Each structure stands twice: as structure tokens, then as C-alpha cells.
Amino acid sequence: MGCSGCSTVGNGKPGGCQSNGGCATGGCNRMNTYDWLASYDIYEPEAYNVVEVSFKNGSRKSFYYNHDSNTITGDMVVVEAGGGYDIGRVSLSGDLVRLQMKKKRVSEESLAHSIIRRANERDLDRLHEAREKEFSTMFKARQISRTLDLEMKIGDVEYQGDKRKATFYYTADGRVDFRELIRHFAKEFKVKIEMRQIGARQESARIGGIGSCGRELCCSTWLTDFKSVSTTAARYQNLAINQTKLSGQCGRLKCCLNYELDSYMDALEHFPKNGERLQTQAGMANLVKTDIFKGLMYYIYTKKSEKSGKFYALPIDRVKEILALNKKGEFPLELMPTKTMEELLEEDLMDYEDVTGAIELPEEVRRKKRRKKRKPSNKGGKQGGGKSNTPKKDNTKKDDSRKDSNKPTRNKKPNSNRKPRPPKDANAKGKPENKANNKPENKGDNSPKPKSKSRNNRNRNRNRNRKPKDANGTPKDNKPRDNKPQGKTQKDNKPSDNKPKE
């Protein structure tokens, strides 16, 4: 919080800064210093005549002379600028400004501008129009730079309070010749153009965002100086070297990797330095992992044996003990210390509580499934709804017997108790001949051929379908009847599908 007026009121919004937001959400000025002296009623006979003014919600700050003693922290003021004026908010005043200037290494002799007056409503309206114009200007500027094939990215645009000057912040890998670009910008926007090259971290600080931790970016809220971050900081903290997880919104390594590095370095001093290999009678063991919080070192045997493939977690004292033995030329039996019989018996004893009778589970209720009885099929019955002469099947049999009964009886053995059937003889007396298979032979004699019943039935149906005739014997539709030969055709020789009715 930058002023004492940021204390919340009844509805939960800050009352002093009048931004209707919060300090953590970017509503107040960012990168502010808490003015803890402003909440005390301390009279300053000789107040410090330099104040800190922030522009565009803290994205840029500068120091100005304050000749008017009526301005306090949180007031909107009009300050001098090169070739015009600018509008900002007083973020810090009093003796804390002297400490802030010392921190940022700004001398009082280098200050050239001062505060003109407090801003009125007309100045605030003009500033609001300039802020609304910045996004469309940045979008148009990116299109122009893309048409000129310049390897640069315009990240932010800031208009001066009087809309006479526009500052373009861009990022690029190297030097960019933007002389032609400035001509296009001046022709398009008709303002004074200023180009400033910034880094990737400064760009993310100006734009802002949410980090992987769920909070606002440190560079846009409180972090002012950017220290170099290397992958060694991640190795000391036993972090996986994954570029996507270690990089921040700016595409560089996260600044928070340096926050806990000192505490890790202090904890690593208690670990032995030459503990990568341990020699035992079972074989050589190599260090695989180090748990800094628990103070454990994990080893594994390199020689292929029954013990290879297992991880052994050793405390720091045990590792130092084995290293001391190896230095003397002695080798222990194993990595883990041998346990006595009393210790093994203590480990086998299980400490548990008998819960018999305390917890009762409900009995499982099982429902018996009833098999549905199938109705017997009326196969073999007569047509017309007559009852079948086949005996009824027993429904109490299992489903497997039904399945077996439907299978073809190819491999079934003949019944030995059954009498053999006599051979069929077409000329045998007392046995009727098979009329369907009894075909007349084409002999040379002129004996009359027997007529089958199927042919008689066919002729009977043909007579039914005939149309009535006139007196002359011709059909009524005057169509001549086809005179077909009454001799036997090839169809008549085939056995008919229509069985004779009994």
C-alpha cells in the first residue's frame, strides 16, 4: 500500500486511492513502498521537498521537486515533462523518499523537473482518453513493424498526459534499425515518437500476469532488481531440469529459484562431500539421490547380485562412518548396520487393537434366481391348429440337454438292441411304392403312362383360373387360347413339392 488512505471502508474497497480495486489486484499503484510514517501524527518542521510520482499504475516512477506543501501521498498532480506536461500520482513523500533515492542511486542534483499543480477534472479526462488510445496504437504499430519485416516485438505503448508524445517499448534479440519505422509512426499517429528497448523480464513486469504459484508476478508487484538465475540453483535444490516448469511468463528461468537457494546451501554443508561411492564387502555402492529435508542419502549396488536393484536409505552419520572405515582400508559387511536379535523381535511385534465385536458388518442377502420354464414347441403338428402327436418334453431337464438334443446325430453309435430294417425292394408285395420317386421309364412300347396326383391337382387349378367362354367356345376377351401339347414336359417329370392331401 502506498498511502494511509488505502485502509478499507465498510464495503471492502479502499477509500484513499479511489481506484476501486485492491493492492494485490493491480488496482493501486504497483511497486509501491509502504509509507508507515503517514499513519502517525508527526509534525515535520522542515519536510523533504522531493516526492516520488508514479505513472500508469506504477509501471514507471520518477522523482520531482515539490514546492507546494499542500500535496500529499495519493494526490493526482501535473508534472513537467520534455516538451509538455504529464499527469501522475504521488506514491511516496517525506523522509522515506530520501531512502528510496539512495536505494535507486539517484542524486538530488540530477533532478530537473518539479510538480506544477494538482490535477483537475479536465486533466483527468484528457489522461483517460490517452489511456484508451494506447491499445489501438499498439495494435496498429505491430502491423506496421510486421510489414517492414523487422525482428522486434512491441510490448507496450504509453502516451504522455497531454497526448503529444508516445513511448513504444519493444523487445528484440539484437539491434534494430527503426529509422524507417519512426517515419511511418509519425505519419500515422502524428505525435512525437520515442523508442525504448527493454528485456523480457521488464516486459512481463509492465504487462503483469499470474504465475504458476497462483499469485501475481513478483516482478510486477515488489521485485525491483533482477539477478541472474542459472540451472545450478535448480540442481542444488534437487529439481528436475525441465525447461517448461522452470521458466516463467517471460520465457526465462524463474526468479524464485534464488529465494531458497541460501537455505539449501546451508543444509548441504552437513552432508559429506566425498560420499558418491561407498565400498563394502558386498560390493561398490553409488549415490543415487539425496533428500535434504530428511537428511537421507540413497545408495544402490553396482555389482549384479541379489542385493542389486534395491535402494538403501542411509542417514548422514552412517555414511560418514562408512567413509571413515574405507579411509582406514576396512570394509563393512553391508551398507545397513547389522541388527541384533532383540531389535528384530521388537520389529516383528505388531501393535494393533482387537476390533472383534466393535465393528459388525451386515450380512449379505442373496436372492435365489428362479429359472423360467420354457413352453414346449409344437413341432411336427398338423397344419390348421391340430394337436401334435409327439410326446411332450420334460421341462425339468437342464439347458445342456436341450442344446445336445438340437445337435445333429452324426457320430452317434447305432443301438445294438434295435432290430435291423429289411432292405427296401421296389417289387416286394404288400408294400406301397414311393410315388414321389417312382419315375416312369422311357421305353419303346406305347403303353399308357400313369398320371400323378400332382398333375391332376395342377390341371384342376388351371381349370379354375380359366375365363368363361362364349357360345362359339372362345374366351370373352377374344384372346386365342394357346394350344399346348398335352404330352409330358420336363417339369412334369420332376417330383412335385405339393404333397397329396390325406
Could you give a quick summary of the protein structure above?
The protein has 502 residues and is of the alpha+beta class.
Principal-axes geometry comes out as flat
Separation of the first and last Cα atoms: 113 Å
* Multimeric state: single chain
Proportion of β residues? 5-15%
SS field, number of helical segments:
13
Please give the share of residues in helix.
Answer: 10-25%
Rg estimate, integer Å: 53 Å
In order across it, which strands form the biggest sheet?
A: 2-1-4-3-5
Unreliable parts: 1-8, 19-27, 381-406, 428-445, 487-494
Order of helices and strands: EEEEHEHEEHEHHHHHEEEEHHHHH
The biggest beta sheet, please?
A: 5 strands, antiparallel
Number of beta strands:
12
Mean pLDDT: 75
Structural class: alpha+beta
Structure description:
- The chain starts with 49 loop residues before the first strand and ends in a 9-residue tail after the last helix.
- The strands form three sheets. It has a five-stranded antiparallel β-sheet with strand order 2-1-4-3-5. Strands 9-10-11-12 form a four-stranded antiparallel β-sheet, covered by helices on one side. A three-stranded mixed β-sheet has the order 6-7-8, with helices on both faces.
- Strand 9 (277-280) and strand 10 (283-291) form a beta hairpin.
- Helix 2 (121-147) crosses helix 3 (179-189).
- The chain has 13 helices and twelve strands.
- Mean pLDDT is 75; it is low at 1-8, 19-27, 381-406, 428-445 and 487-494.
- 24% of the residues lie in helices and 15% in strands.
- The chain is α+β, with helices and mostly antiparallel strands and 502 residues long.
- It has helices at 96-103, 121-147, 179-189, 200-207, 218-221, 232-236, 243-246, 261-268, 316-328, 341-348, 399-406, 453-464, 490-493; strands at 50-55, 60-65, 76-81, 84-92, 115-118, 153-159, 165-171, 192-197, 277-280, 283-291, 296-301, 312-315.
- Among the domains are: 4-117, no CATH class; 127-207, GMP Synthetase, Chain A, domain 3 (2-Layer Sandwich); 227-268, no CATH class; 277-339.
